[in-house]
Specification:
- This protein is an all-alpha fold and about 425 residues long.
- The protein has a single domain (about 15-425), classed as Amino acid/polyamine transporter I (Up-down Bundle), CATH 1.20.1740.
- The protein has helices at about 10-25, 25-30, 30-40, 45-65, 75-80, 85-115, 115-135, 140-170, 175-185, 190-205, 210-215, 225-260, 265-270, 280-310, 330-345, 345-370, 380-395, 400-425.
- Helix 3 (about 30-40) runs antiparallel to helix 10 (about 190-205).
Length: about 425
């Protein structure tokens, strides 16, 4: 029996809020430390590269979403424009990459609030609660995302002001002075281009939330108009916020201290002598991580729904709840997998693995956009080409352990698909032998 379609309930403000909640989440509170470890002060150059690749990807995604306003994002685009295998690889990359992102969000949430021994139980609790919120309907998700984004932006504004005072307010330490020198050009290229590109790949983890808007395409009103605008607005805000926060962190701490920090934005306000603000930043980081986790569970659930409709994932994942009109089986399954990852993985490993999956996902999206005819194009084809090349370059420069894990999981997905298709080909349409 055909499953009911999802309901179009989201307007422009709702879509922007969900996209921002996915981007301005754990990434801005966690990704600058591993990026500084890779590139030192050059993380600012890496941030600019990641922002450009994200802009190219967002442009391709918005162009495709206007043509294919359905659940699934690049999975759907790859399948429609390039064929079943590219679509599957995009969808599988998204599901595994963003499931790892969810684990990173949950762990970051707990790391900012709880002592080590309580962090994983608290992270698991957060996953369960937010999955329950998503199961109540997409409008509940959008309302929660709006409240979270407003609160997080206020906290990040506090961090930026604190970082500025370390240089101009008389509270500068030796690290802050060194950070100020780095910000204005000294040491930007000390780690070389490989380190800078590796930092760009890690920082891309924090930009990728705009895809959530596209994966919710079946639930957006007037999608051909709303999705491109929402993607552009959400990404523009995120780029400005990330640039300000990254510069503030580098100025306040210096590259070495930033690289070693487990809670870098808390350390920024501490360097300014604002110890009173440290609990506020911890709460803000936790809330941001929850916002990103909320949006991500929704996005993964919709991609799983689209893949299950096409038989690429188990069919029960395509079921839509008759009252709340959400893919409830898919979201419950996603939550269970996230819980397993929360118990077993570390934060930095999750960030690198997530970047691998998401960059491949956007590579397929860019290639799909390149194939669109002139009448469907909203951006120059050259921008989609640049996005595809950028994704491959950033994947190639990720840490070796992230590459190995990503290639392994991608191969497992392809092998499972081959086996399942082989079994189905030997059966008739009713499940008997052909």
């Amino acid at each position: 029996m055909d499953q009911p379609a999802l309901a179009r309930r989201l307007g422009l403000r709702d879509a922007v809020a969900i996209g921002l909640a996915a981007m301005i989440g754990a990434g801005v509170f966690a990704a600058f430390a591993p990026a500084a470890e890779a590139a030192g002060a050059g993380l600012l150059v890496g941030l600019a590269i990641a922002a450009f690749v994200a802009f190219a990807n967002a442009s391709s995604t918005a162009q495709l979403a206007a043509r294919y306003p359905e659940s699934g994002g690049a999975y759907r685009y790859g399948r429609e424009r390039l064929g079943e295998w590219p679509g599957f690889l995009a969808g599988w990359s998204f599901v595994i990459g963003k499931t790892a992102s969810c684990a990173a969000m949950a762990i970051t949430f707990a790391a900012y609030l709880a002592p080590v021994e309580w962090q994983r139980p608290l992270a698991v609790t957060a996953v369960i609660v937010l999955a329950a919120v998503n199961l109540r309907g997409i409008t509940r998700t959008a309302r929660a995302a709006t409240v979270i984004v407003i609160g997080v932006l206020l906290v990040l504004g506090l961090v930026v002001v604190a970082g500025v005072t370390t240089v101009f307010g008389g509270a500068a330490s030796a690290a802050g002075a060194a950070g100020g020198d780095s910000l204005f050009g000294a040491g930007l290229f000390d780690q070389g281009w490989l380190g800078i590109l590796q930092s760009a790949g890690l920082l891309f983890f924090a930009f990728a939330g705009y895809a959530r808007i596209a994966t919710l395409g079946e639930e957006v009103r007037e999608p051909a108009h709303t999705i491109p605008r929402a993607v552009g607005i959400a990404l523009g805000i995120a780029v400005v916020v990330y640039a300000a926060v990254g510069a503030a962190a580098l100025v306040a701490l210096g590259a070495d201290r930033l690289a070693a920090s487990v809670a870098p934005l808390v350390d920024v306000v501490g360097a300014a002598g604002w110890q009173w603000a440290q609990p506020i930043v911890r709460v803000g980081a936790a809330v941001a991580a929850l916002g990103a986790l909320l949006a991500l569970i929704a996005g993964i659930g919709r991609t799983s729904l689209a893949m299950a409709r096409d038989g690429e994932l188990p069919r029960p994942l395509a079921r839509v709840h008759p009252r709340f009109q959400v893919p409830h089986i898919a979201e419950i399954a996603v939550a269970l997998v996230i819980i397993v990852l929360v118990i077993t993985v570390d934060l930095r490993g999750a960030i690198g693995f997530s970047s691998f999956g998401v960059l491949l996902y956007y590579f397929v999206a860019n290639v799909a956009a390149i194939t669109q005819p002139a009448r469907e194009r909203r951006v120059p084809r050259a921008l989609s080409v640049a996005g595809a090349v950028g994704c491959l370059v950033l994947v190639a420069t990720l840490p070796l352990v992230s590459l190995a894990a990503g290639v392994g999981v991608l191969a497992v997905g392809a092998l499972i698909r081959l086996v399942v298709r082989g079994v189905r080909s030997r059966r008739g349409p009713r499940g008997g032998r052909a």
